[in-house]
């Protein structure tokens, strides 16, 4: 199986799990690229996607911290690459739930006791738990590697 075929298969599985299809294709194409970097034109040609689709997919991945966007020296062309910290690791150690948790906690005082209050309080507790445990999980995984 070629790297590109493997990337297509994994991207399809990610899309089946709810990850947007085009960003999944871009991310996995970068993962199998030997140097982990490609221009928009190369991504568009390789994946048979329109430049607009590549642009939108890169924007989505950039917000998540899954790709880096650099400018090729001496040009105005962008090159997209994988971050130094792998994208799957960044999902563990970046606390993206902080603002949501803060909003929930601030609003809990305005809710009457009952089922809705309990559900939202549990959600805030879960995000607080993740904020503490995910970095520990990353550390454990790093220690388990040879």
How would you sum up this structure, described in words?
The protein has 146 residues and is mainly alpha-helical. It folds into 2 domains: 3-84, Arc Repressor Mutant, subunit A, CATH 1.10.10.10; 95-144. Helix content is 66%, strand content 8%. It contains 7 helices and 3 strands; from the N terminus they run ααβααββααα. A hairpin with a 6-residue loop joins strand 2 (68-71) and strand 3 (78-81). Helix 3 packs across helix 4. The radius of gyration is 19 Å and the shape is elongated. The mean pLDDT is 88.
| Largest beta-sheet details | 3 strands, antiparallel
What's the mean pLDDT score?
A: 88
Q: Which class best fits the helix and strand makeup? A: mainly alpha
Q: Count the E strands.
A: 3
Weakly predicted, low-confidence segments: none
CATH topology of the largest domain: Arc Repressor Mutant, subunit A
Task: Categorize the overall geometry.
Answer: elongated
CATH architecture of the largest domain: Orthogonal Bundle
Q: Please write the string of helix (H) and strand (E) elements.
A: HHEHHEEHHH
Oligomeric nature of the chains: single chain
**How many domains would you count in the coordinates?**
2
CATH class of the largest domain: Mainly Alpha
CATH superfamily of the largest domain: Winged helix-like DNA-binding domain superfamily/Winged helix DNA-binding domain
């Amino acid at each position: 199986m070629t790297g590109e075929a493997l990337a297509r298969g994994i991207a399809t599985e990610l899309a089946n799990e709810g990850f947007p299809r085009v960003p999944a294709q871009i991310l996995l194409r970068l993962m199998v690229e030997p140097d982990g970097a490609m221009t928009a034109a190369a991504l568009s040609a390789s994946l048979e996607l329109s430049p607009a689709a590549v642009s939108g997919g890169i924007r989505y991945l950039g917000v998540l911290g899954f790709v880096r966007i650099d400018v090729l020296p001496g040009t105005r062309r962008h090159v997209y690459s994988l971050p130094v910290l792998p994208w799957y690791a960044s999902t563990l150690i970046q606390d993206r739930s902080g603002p949501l948790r803060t909003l929930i906690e601030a609003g809990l005082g305005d809710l009457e006791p009952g089922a809705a209050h309990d559900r939202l309080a549990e959600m805030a507790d879960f995000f607080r738990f993740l904020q503490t445990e995910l970095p520990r999980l990353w550390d454990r995984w790093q220690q388990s590697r040879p």
